[in-house]
Amino acid sequence: MTSGRDGGAGPAALRIQLGSQLRRLRKDRGVTREAAGWEIRASESKISRMELGRVPFKERDVADLLSFYGVGEEERRELLGLARRANAPGWWQEYADIVPPWFLGYLGLEEAASLIRSYEVHFVPGLLQTDDYARAVIAHGHEGAPPEDIDRRIALRRGRRRVLQRTDPPHVWAVLDEGVLHRPFGGRSVMRGQLEALIAAAQHPNVRIQIVPFRGSPRAAAGLPFAILRFAEEELSDVVYVEQLTSALYLDKPTDVDHYAATMDLACLEAEPPDRTTAILEKILDELDGSAG
Length: 293
What we know:
Blueprint: H1 11-28, H2 33-39, H3 44-51, H4 59-68, H5 73-86, H6 101-112, E1 115-120, H7 131-141, H8 147-160, E2 171-177, H9 178-182, H10 188-202, E3 207-212, E4 226-230, E5 239-243, E6 248-251, H11 254-270, H12 277-292
Parallel strand pairs: 1-2, 2-3
Antiparallel strand pairs: 1-4, 4-5, 5-6
Helix pairs in contact: 1-5, 1-6, 2-3, 4-5, 7-8, 10-12
């Protein structure tokens, strides 16, 4: 049953919940994906994508599957209601005119994830950026963009940060190259505010930050940056997100995920332990203040 489980979850999370319920019902009835696909005039691969929550749901398809699985009236009503909510546009869709389509998919996954691991070599991760730092980074990457577009991109980044304020926030594990913290986007005052925000974030029980020091030559940095997203549903595979200049890769094959997971583990070993993060950030902050004199 789904009553009361979705709370304020976004559509991507609701699709994952509904897909998980459909998978459970199919397996309980001993139905193959091929047979389920035949019932709704679709392929086995579509059933797989539906059960993974990777595609929007047609209410007719859900209704036909529920009839095929012999679902009772009360559970049927709840699941069809869940399907309608899952098809509602995400809050980020209002920014679709300034955000590339390949990034919109990531926003849905980020909101649905229970664990977000990332390694950054250029910028502070978006979820941990202050507005002033975000403005400097966005202006740098979109030179000549109208001020109103910059403002909307900052609003989008601010909206992303709301996941950390939920009653069930995801765990965020960010590994940063030390160079990120010395790259003065926006100038001294902006970096001061960003460093202070990272110090505060590091105290949050759901946030872990590690810093890879300048010394040495990190072996993990070759294929970076990237993020690995994990979901609460055990049946769902992790998703690796690799952003490129004009597109992005979404990888979920076990061999790809395992490779990136091993690289992330190596990065964590090469980084200073999390309990050193605050001291490192405070030292950089002191150096920043010292350079002002």
